[in-house]
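Sequence only, no structure available. Ideas?
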Amino acid sequence: MPIIENSWTHAYITTNGIKLHYVTQGEGILMLMLHGFPEFWYSWRHQIPEFAQNYQVVALDLRGYNDSDKPQAQSAYVMDEFVKDIAGVIQGLGYESCVLVGHDWGGAIAWNFAYAHPDMVEKLIILNLPHPAKFSQGLSTPQQLLRSYYIFLFQLPLLPELVLQASDYEAITKVIQGTAFNKNAFTTADLEAYKDAAAKRGAITAMLNYYRNIFQQRLLNKNWSILEVPTLMIWGEQDTALGKELTYGTQEYVRNLQIKYIPNSGHWVQQEQPEVVTEYMREFLA
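Reply:
I predicted one. Tokens follow.
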């Protein structure tokens, strides 16, 4: 799938008291894409031109990432604020609702946003991030606790920053390339782009603050109702951070659910298997 260079437009929007950077292409119904850690809008480079044929695609830099504002207070990186950011983006762009797409942390935000504002989500697409109730259950198992060791490592002050910044941000490359099943999915230029985004002033601490607030928010202890928004889950089966078993039983929490498993893909499924991801998304949206 060729990437159409410079086919998109860079822009900024003020929402919830901060300025967020985004890339956009196309027109029509809003398709809002939310990336994960340690990424930025670039994670959706394969999907933006594909879906711009039928939608106004908007790929955000989440707060704290790349060219978006990076509030210094750790308390600025909590789910209530992320949800407000997304509501403000949708309304600020002149829409009442959107097709919401999220991967990793973007998926966590998308799940929570769909529960908070189901009227603003026409359809929900989640990539390699389990329903919050299933993730909470998973953390009670030794297997998933071992896979999620980095969450606990990131609670430490200063040390995670030093590790991620060392040797010209080599750890960013290792996080992405080291956990990809399809190693050829990332060129040297792709990995340099992720390192450059992480190197922007304040970005590393902001990115880590997402994790540092997980336990204080009691996000993992909520009682989750049944979500009425039509939902597609896409899952790269060789994800080393989040086990496939975390998807089992999701239908207990989502009334209208489809799950598509993709072999030969790790955690970065929309980048490792972009053609398959696009195909499944198109089928769901048709």
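The longest strand covers residues 18-25.
Hope that gets you unstuck.
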